[in-house]
Design a protein that fits this description.
Keywords: Cell membrane, Membrane, Transmembrane, Transmembrane helix, Transport
CATH superfamily: MetI-like
Order of helices and strands: HHHHHHHHHH
Structural class: mainly alpha
InterPro entries: BP-dependent_transpt_permease, MetI-like, MetI-like_sf
Number of strands: 0
Membrane topology: Multi-pass membrane protein
Subcellular location: Cell membrane
Radius of gyration: 22 Å
Strand content: under 5%
Shape: elongated
Number of domains: 1
Protein name: ABC transporter permease
Oligomer: single chain
Length: 271
């Protein structure tokens, strides 16, 4: 196991543990206001301090973790669930009208920045975590479609695929039984990367008010609330900012470590 894989797994596990633990325990009620205790810096009672309403930041970070993870996880699931079959179909019908339709649709989505598309979709559908999931998930579809198609094309000319075709197997059956298992490692790595991007996208949407809505805590909205108080309460921005940085860093390291671990060529190079 590489250093990146271990460090990424540790950071990601800590964030996941905080999210799971928040379902049964937080140091304080994340929505409880305590005006006399507002804007406290980290101390023995409030480990990460309090915000301008006296709410405990640690409790908000823990609950916000499950919001970010849930949005990113479902969005990646949407992207993978729709994008992988499209990529397999495009590879199986290379050069056909179906291939052209799928790939030109991908190009259309890629012509616009992901966050702009997400903002447009949530602006039309309305603010909220569900619409944020839809917006992020839609952008993930062409990512997985293109990755899957590229990997599958290199397999369609392999001998074991030719043998399956000679045996009379259909393109759909070959894609499911032979192509998909051989590209799964690549999809797992890409899924980890898209998961980290989903965390960032959710934070960005929440920052502009289009993500999870109050009273549900969100790291992005915590940053937005803190921007006018940075000069006298910098911890309000540092706490959610570090949560986002460490989460994305952990997931990127995890993805990089998984790539090194799952790619046989890289294992041989390291040996």
């Amino acid at each position: 196991m590489t250093r990146n894989l271990i460090l990424g797994a540790v950071l990601s596990s800590l964030v996941l543990l905080a999210a799971v633990l928040s379902f049964v325990w937080t140091p304080f009620d994340h929505a409880a206001m305590n005006i006399p205790a507002k804007l406290q810096t980290p101390n023995a009672q409030h480990w990460l301090g309090t915000d301008h309403f006296g709410r405990d930041l640690m409790a908000m970070i823990m609950v916000g973790a499950r919001t970010s993870i849930a949005v990113a996880l479902v969005a990646v699931g949407i992207g993978m669930g729709a994008g992988v079959p499209l990529g397999l179909a495009a590879a199986a019908r290379k050069g056909s009208w179906l291939d052209e339709l799928i790939m030109r649709g991908n190009d259309l989505v890629f012509a616009f920045p992901s966050l702009v598309i997400a903002i447009l979709i949530t602006a039309v559908l309305g603010a909220g975590a569900v619409n944020a999931i839809i917006a992020i998930g839609i952008f993930n579809i062409p990512v997985f479609a293109r990755i899957t198609r590229g990997a599958a094309l290199s397999l369609w000319e392999r001998e074991f695929i030719l043998a399956a075709r000679v045996a009379g197997k259909s393109a759909a059956r070959i894609s499911a039984e032979h192509i998909l298992p051989n590209v799964m490692n690549l999809l797992i790595v890409q899924g980890t990367i898209q998961f980290s991007l989903g965390i960032l996208a959710e934070a960005g949407l929440s920052y502009v008010g289009l993500g999870a809505q109050p009273p549900t805590p969100s790291w992005g909205r915590m940053l937005a609330d803190a921007q006018t108080m940075v000069s006298f309460a910098p911890h309000l921005a540092l706490v959610p900012g570090m949560a986002i940085i460490l989460t994305v860093l952990g997931l990127n390291l995890l993805g990089d470590g998984l790539r090194d671990h799952l790619d046989p060529k890289l294992r041989v190079a390291r040996a």
